[in-house]
Amino acid sequence: MNDTNNTPAVAAVCAALAAPPFALRSGEKPRAHQAARQAIGQRCPTCGDRLTASSARWARIVPLVHLPPLGIGDTDRIVLCTGCVARRGAGDLLVLRPPAELLERRAALLHQAQHHLTSRLSRAAILRVLDARIAHPRTALVAAHDAATGDVVLGWSALSGDPDTLAGFLVRLRFQSGARAVHASDSMSVWRLPSSVSLSAMWMLIEHGALIRCVGTQPPAIDDDWRACWPLRVDSIARQLDRRDPETGWAIGAPGPVLSVMPDSIRRRDAKRAASAARDRAASVTDARQRAASSDPLVRFAAMGDLLDLGVLPGAVGANA
Ligand SMILES: [Zn+2]
């Protein structure tokens, strides 16, 4: 094993993947629930088979690893047959091609779940982005920043999602992003992403349904560091939107960790904001200079104050009509 396979970031990712919920504790098995007994005689909602005392199994619409506990409670419970439970494995319910009613319940749960933020301006627009993501099977991944190299170490366990989706991620990371395998076994797969491609590679996975949890060192308080891509809930996004002035749409107070859909648009957004601020300042300076040339001494005095506030020396105006 070479040195870069043995860094604190690799250790942090492997430790997270070896702990619940990415690895169930020994002896902990999905358990039959009272609800399963009550469903005996009904049809399995995904395959239509009649549920019996031996085949009815309590299950979650969204696996816990995909949906960190949010106080959602019993609305996440369904009863499936043992065959469907086995076919689904650790994967998203989408693997079983569920009927529309279950898809709606899944979407409602995931709308309340954690997501990587977008900077869209309306709740409806945010939900459209999230709906595009949750059309893919949800997966839960773990990542850490490697301080020594600037790389990102990213991994998943056998409980992170369905094997087909995770195999698709493997191909994309390996052949599109140039990721290097650090650790591969039946129980976990860990990759090293070069810093130049790490953010775009992770956003590609996010757009394909991945929820990436950051482990290891704390993220710095800057927006475009990948570790600022914190998973927040839709209600957190709504709270963020509520901090806008309803009249002007401007943010009230300090901006929170709102991110864009893609890293490139973070940069475009920042450039746009800087350009807009520069335009506003130039317009204010022009206006104050015109007022500083007024024949009214009170107007001139106020304009001098404005120019000082804008960091322009009133002496430089040199225009007293
Ligand atoms: Zn079934």
**Strands of the biggest beta sheet: in what spatial order?**
6-7-5-4-8
CA-based gyration radius: 26 Å
Structurally, the number of domains stands at: 3
Q: What distance lies between the first and last C-alpha atoms, to the nearest angstrom?
A: 79 Å
Strand pairing plus helix content: what structural class? alpha+beta
Annotation field: number of helices = 10
* CATH class (first level) name of the largest domain: Alpha Beta
Q: What name is given to the CATH topology of the largest domain?
A: Alpha-Beta Plaits
Query: Can you give the helix content as a percent range?
Result: 25-40%
The CATH homologous superfamily of the largest domain is named: ACT domain
Q: How much of the polypeptide forms β-strand, as a percent range?
A: 5-15%
How many E-type strands?
9
Give the second-level CATH assignment, the architecture of the largest domain: 2-Layer Sandwich
Low-pLDDT parts are 26-30, 254-261, 316-321
Mean pLDDT, rounded to whole units?
Answer: 80
Overall geometry comes to: elongated
Descriptive overview:
By secondary structure, the chain is α+β, with helices and mostly antiparallel strands. The protein folds into 3 domains: 25-110, no CATH class; 115-242, ACT domain (Alpha-Beta Plaits); 263-316. It is built from 10 helices and 9 strands. The chain has helices at residues 8-18, 34-38, 82-88, 100-111, 123-134, 163-176, 195-207, 234-242, 263-292, 297-309; strands at residues 56-60, 77-81, 114-116, 139-145, 152-157, 180-184, 188-193, 210-214, 231-233. Strands 6-7-5-4-8 form a 5-stranded mixed beta sheet. α9 (263-292) packs antiparallel against α10. It is elongated. Mean pLDDT is 80; it is low at 26-30, 254-261 and 316-321. The site of zinc ion has 8 residues, from β2 and α3.
